[in-house]
């Protein structure tokens, strides 16, 4: 499926300039992955889902729509969907957020994560699919702690652009020293700041990190594990792209609807223009 990807202003303009689209409920999402996930379960509404190039784009699109509404004394049915990582503190009634850190983690926390491994992993090496998914999330604990520290002290370190695959050893275990080294190189972190970060990591036993673990990182870890640690039943490709696509296909509507964001999105897309938001 091919769908255009806009920035926030272009996404709003694509809706405003189309009388047909304006007459329908519209959902602004961060990217193509969210379109694929939602359209997989709501195919009839695919044309009403618009990618905005990230969480900032979603917020910009909503703001542009509201400015247009005020100028034309009218209202449109629009809703934005972003990761909780960026929206947990927002109070915009037109934005809904994932339950965990992002939609991918929500999928892993549903039965979809288990079905993915039951389909792909060796039965002998992966006898408990749920525990294996949880282990993969826990394996990223150091990165989760760095994310929390980064947010707490107001740093703007770019963590997402660190090549996680380079930080995993042959068994798929995270080499925290290599991760910190790459993080330092990517962000030109001063030695004193790096020492403070390492000290924090040594004194944070018991700190929960699950809420800040990125689903994409879990897919990278599981892809690596499927190549060795938990086996690969079909000997098929297991890079993160394949793992994420298989996870999406393993989701079931009934399970996603246990999350408030999924219920709200389905209700919104199925609404009539006169129903309001």
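Q: What amino acid sequence fits the structure above?
A:
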């Amino acid at each position: 499926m091919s769908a255009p990807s806009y920035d926030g202003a272009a996404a709003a303009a694509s809706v405003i300039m189309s009388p047909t689209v304006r007459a329908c409920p519209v959902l602004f999402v961060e990217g193509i992955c969210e379109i694929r996930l939602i359209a997989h379960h709501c195919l009839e509404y695919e044309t009403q889902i618009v990618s905005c190039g990230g969480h900032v784009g979603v917020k910009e699109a909503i703001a542009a729509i509201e400015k247009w509404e005020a100028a034309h004394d009218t209202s449109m049915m629009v809703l934005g969907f972003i990761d909780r990582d960026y929206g947990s503190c927002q109070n915009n009634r037109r934005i809904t957020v994932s339950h965990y850190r992002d939609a991918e983690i929500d999928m892993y926390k549903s039965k979809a994560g288990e079905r993915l491994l039951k389909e792909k992993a060796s039965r002998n090496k992966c006898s408990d699919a749920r525990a294996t998914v949880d282990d993969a999330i826990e394996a990223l604990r150091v990165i989760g702690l760095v994310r929390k520290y980064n947010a707490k002290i107001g740093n703007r370190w770019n963590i997402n652009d660190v090549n996680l695959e380079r930080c995993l050893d042959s068994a798929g275990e995270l080499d925290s020293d290599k991760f910190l080294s790459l993080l330092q190189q990517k962000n030109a972190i001063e030695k004193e700041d790096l020492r403070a970060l390492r000290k924090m990591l040594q004194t944070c036993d018991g700190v929960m990190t699950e809420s800040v673990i990125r689903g994409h990182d879990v897919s990278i870890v599981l892809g690596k594990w499927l190549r060795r640690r938990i086996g690969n039943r079909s000997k098929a490709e297991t890079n993160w792209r394949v793992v994420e696509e298989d996870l999406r296909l393993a989701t079931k509507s009934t399970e996603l609807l246990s999350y408030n964001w999924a219920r709200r999105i389905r209700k919104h897309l199925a609404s009539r223009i006169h129903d309001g938001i």
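Q: And what stands out in the fold?
A: The chain is about 55% helix and 5% strand.
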